[in-house]
Sequence to fold (108 residues):
Amino acid sequence: MDLQIYYQKIREVEARIADEFPIVVSKETADGGKEGRKTEVPRRLAAKLVVEGLARFAEPEEVKAYRATMAEAKRAAEQLAQAAKLQLTVLSTAELDRLKGHARGAKD
Fold:
């Protein structure tokens, strides 16, 4: 394989990519690569994967579905993070009574 031609192909494919982080779909490979895995990668890596025949660019419908799935996953992760921030304070009975007394005093 001529390396100059190889890298020229990568540069040509990279120049045609509009997105900064395009989504590629993996192809099945002899060394165990699974077909259909969608991944968001940098432009240069996407071009390399396509030139080597390890992946193809995702179709517009696939991109839309992938982005929706990732948005939902992000929302769920943020929800879990918010739930983890829940703070509890343990008070003794005496402290609770004192706080109740201050609250009643403030209302009067």
Remarks:
- The chain has a mean pLDDT of 90.
- The radius of gyration is 27 Å.
- The beta strands are 23-26, 38-40, 55-57.
